[in-house]
C-alpha cells in the first residue's frame, strides 16, 4: 500500500477528527483555519486515499456487560498457507475477537477477546478456539485493568 504524504493541514484535520469524528465540517474548518469547502475537499481526499478508513463510536464494554478482556496467544501445529488462512478466516468471524495479530515470538497469533465473564470465556474457548484445526497451544492472559486503550494514531511528529 502506497504511503500518503500529509501536510500540516492534513495532520491537523486528522488530529481533530480522531478526537471528535462527529464534528461538523463547519466546526472542523474553523479549528484548522480553512474554508468549509477546502476542508471538505481535504477530508474527502483523505477518505478516498484510504487514510481515513471509517468513523465509529467508542463504547465502554463494562457498561454493556462485557467486562472480561483476555489476550489470547495461539500457537499453530504447522505453518502452511492454507491452514493459517483458515484460522485467520475463522477467528475474524468471531464477534468476541476485537483484534487479531499475526506475531513473531512465543505465539503465532495474539487475539484481544472481550466477553461478559469467565463462564462465557470458557464457552468461547471450548466452542470456538478449541475446535480450530491446527492449534497446538492456547495461552490466556486476563487483563486486570486497562491502562491505555486508544485508536488515536499520532500524526505530524507526535512520535519524535
TrEMBL record:
Pfam families given in the database record: AsnC_trans_reg, HTH_24
SMART domains the UniProt entry points to: HTH_ASNC
Residues in HTH asnC-type domain copies: 6-67
InterPro entries given in the database record: ArsR-like_HTH (IPR011991), AsnC-type_HTH_dom (IPR000485), Dimeric_a/b-barrel (IPR011008), Tscrpt_reg_AsnC-like (IPR019888), Tscrpt_reg_AsnC/Lrp_C (IPR019887), WH-like_DNA-bd_sf (IPR036388), WH_DNA-bd_sf (IPR036390)
GO biological process, one term: regulation of DNA-templated transcription
Source organism, top-level taxon: Bacteria
Any one annotated GO CC term: cytosol
Keywords assigned: DNA-binding, Transcription, Transcription regulation
Stretches that traverse the bilayer: none
GO molecular function terms attached to this record: sequence-specific DNA binding
Keyword ATP-binding: no
Name of the protein this chain belongs to: Lrp/AsnC family transcriptional regulator
